[in-house]
Amino acid sequence: MLEEKSMSEEPPPTKYVVEIVVPEKPPPTPKQFVQDLKGVAGGKQIARMKKEAVACPVLNKTVSFVQCFACPNFIRRVKGRVDCRGLPLPSA
Ligand code: SF4
After folding, report:
1. pTM to 2 decimals?
2. Which ligand 1 atom minimizes the distance to the CA of 75?
3. Is residue 42 part of a domain?
């Protein structure tokens, strides 16, 4: 059996799988990241995402899921986890 595979459709490699948590006191969501989401997610969705957070292994701190979603390292969200490229980021 032959499988056709196009390299361009390969997802980028995942370096970290990061758990999404809902902390009692979510980290602040910088406005610029919310701006990035407008048009991509609805208001209710954004409100929910603001309550979620990830312990980012690259920035070495807990950030809002909104920030994570807008991050160039974000690959996908599956089952409460984020697949992260883990490349260096300009610290935010
Ligand atoms: S996608 Fe970005 S913010 Fe999210 S865990 Fe990876 S480096 Fe951190």
Report:
1. 0.85
2. 1
3. yes
